[in-house]
What does this fold into?
Amino acid sequence: MVTRPRVSRGQAAEDAVARAMRAVARRRFLRSGQRGSAGADAPLRIGSGQTCSQPRTVANMLRLLDVRAGQRILDVGAGSGWTTALLAHLVGREGAVIGV
It folds into this structure.
């Protein structure tokens, strides 16, 4: 089952974050045995005590950050790289994202 980021009341149904989350599949950042759970709105363990964060949490965080095209962003604690890839999608070719 694939879930889509929930949209808050008053929020545009198709904002940049929702488009980024559709374009950057979470499953690509998970181990093969976990890919079937990629659509779950839950954090997934990725090893070494880390998780690939819950999609709703990531969507809310990205909306609060108000990421814009052309920005330069440092993602500290990049984990699986999924959030870093979402940020890269949001800043576009004119921006830059470094994940560590």
